[in-house]
Amino acid sequence: MKIYTYAILKDYFDKEFAVDETVSNVDGLYHFLVQRNPAAKDILAACRFAVNDQFVANDFTLNKEDQVHIIPPSSGG
Question: With a threshold of 0.85, does the pTM exceed it?
C-alpha cells in the first residue's frame, strides 16, 4: 500500500512510501509505523487516516492496493 504523510509527519517519515508488510487495518498500520519510528507515536495518535480519499475509523480493513493519507492535526484561522 502507498502511504502519504503531511506537515510534521515528514519529519518522521518520507513524504511518500510503500508498506509491503501485511497490516489488517488502520490500527495495525498505526502500530507498524510506531515500530518503524517510535518518536512519531504521539503525533500519529493525534492523526486522522484517510484511505482512498475517505476518512476512516481505526478498525477499517486495509488492502495492499490502498492509498493511505495520514493527516496530522492543524491549527489556523
Answer: yes
